Amino acid sequence: MSQPSDTLHNPMSLAGRSLLVTGASAGIGQATAVLLSRLGARVTLNGRDEGRLADTLSRLTGEGHRVAPFDMGDLDAIPAWMKEQAALSGPFDGVAHCAGIQTLRPIRIFSQEFFDQVMRVNLGSCLALAKGLRQKGVRAERSAMVFISSTAATAASPANIVYAAAKGGIIAATKGLSAELLPDGIRVNCVVPSIVMTDLIERGFEKLSQEQIDHLQRLQPLGFGHVDDVAHAIAYLLADTGRWITGTALTVDGGRTA
Ligand SMILES: NC(=O)c1ccc[n+]([C@@H]2O[C@H](COP(=O)([O-])OP(=O)(O)OC[C@H]3O[C@@H](n4cnc5c(N)ncnc54)[C@H](OP(=O)(O)O)[C@@H]3O)[C@@H](O)[C@H]2O)c1
């Protein structure tokens, strides 16, 4: 017969953990921050919009949370910024990197400036955060990173090629980093969502006809996702439930790529 303590054990508990969430001012990042706080974590909230970060802060459960506005496109400054944040929040047991940008743009209007911006914010930031987290004093003894890729990388996504390439790069970076950061006690995984209704998607849909939107919905047998569907997967990978998982791309897509 199990002991009473077994029935209380929650392998997804994050009690006592210090976690950094980027993109916490909106969408998936905000939902993730709220969930991680409910699971007991102290959360450092990153984004650029201080008003929206304050709104996220007001939604969190528990104490010890902070906001830390910073531009994830400023790659060379990220490691020093993380050192400052760890000094204030404590070494990070994990990072949920949810900041990202998407602008639909057909290849006929491709430009170097557009490429640099999309690659820097979506993919470069993952690498700079990995460099930052592995520093002594920034990571806890065991730590985990979760990036957000996209089914744009694994199923054709027209007029979205640079974003798709950045998101494909995240899957490749996840695998390489998982091996490179193993000696530092850092697990590295990513989630691969299909369409979840957020500001990012609503902005994209403004450029599409109703017929195109209906087509996108039909591509996902389980319909469009909810931000919590992705937040749950991120929490699973950060918590002890993910302790034997590294280098994985976890598809969370309502059956889009099944
Ligand atoms: N929604 C989907 O269907 C979907 C599907 C697959 C993958 N994804 C990925 O999931 C992630 C979150 O998407 P979402 O739909 O939640 O987007 P969203 O609602 O537009 O939120 C994006 C977040 O990223 C932050 N951000 C953007 N640029 C930043 C920068 N330079 N520095 C710091 N923070 C920055 C924004 O904060 P500020 O504005 O305050 O800076 C905001 O908090 C992205 O990586 C996206 O590519 C989304």
Automatic annotation (TrEMBL):
The keyword rRNA-binding does not apply. CDD domains: SDR_c. The keyword Oxidoreductase applies. Residues 17-194 form the Ketoreductase domain. GO terms for molecular function: oxidoreductase activity. InterPro entries: KR_dom (IPR057326), NAD(P)-bd_dom_sf (IPR036291), SDR_DHRS6-like (IPR051122), SDR_fam (IPR002347). Belongs to the short-chain dehydrogenases/reductases (SDR) family. This is Short-chain dehydrogenase. It comes from Nitrospirillum viridazoti CBAmc.
